[in-house]
Structures are given as structure tokens and as C-alpha cells.
Amino acid sequence: MLTMTSKTPPFRYLRTSEAARFLSLSPRTMEKHRLYGTGPRYRKLGGRVVYSIPDLQEWADQDIRTCSSGHRSDR
Questions:
Q1: pLDDT at residue 26 greater than cutoff 80
Q2: pTM of this prediction?
Q3: Alpha carbon separation from 50 to 10, 44, 62, 66 (Å, rounded)
């Protein structure tokens, strides 16, 4: 039997507009990322596109940078 502790928030999927707001992007940008395969992982549930928060966070964290110039300081 699966039980949820008070420390575990309920798992929830976000629709495109909510996911876009979470990432500070427009819904149209999210749609383009889906079209080109460059965006976060998503699921289709009953014909609706939904995103998990962990997938959105993972996608956003893929391109973390510490410097805006073209070279890296750890070389």
C-alpha cells in the first residue's frame, strides 16, 4: 500500500500554459520546443499535453552557466 508522508508533496502534472509560467516562457515557445524536440519531456494524457515538475526542472538545469563569455574557467 502506497502512503504519502507529510514531507512528500502530491505529484501533479502541469498543462502547457502552467509549465510555460513555471519556466518563465510563453506557451508558444513551449509548443515550438515540442515541435522541434528541444524542450522538456512531456506526456499525453487523454489528448492533453502535460509536464511533470521534475522534468521541467531537469530540462531547465541542463544548461546552467557561470560565465557569459565563450570560454570556460575550468580548462
A1: yes
A2: 0.74
A3: 16, 6, 20, 31
Contacts 24+ apart (CB under 8 A), 53-62: 53/12, 53/14, 53/22, 56/14, 56/19, 56/22, 56/23, 60/23
CB 11 within 8 Å of CB 52: yes
One-letter amino acid at 7 equals K
**Domain boundaries along the sequence of the chain:** 13-59
CB 14 within 8 A of CB 57: no
Sheet holding 43-45, edge to edge: 13-15, 48-52, 43-45
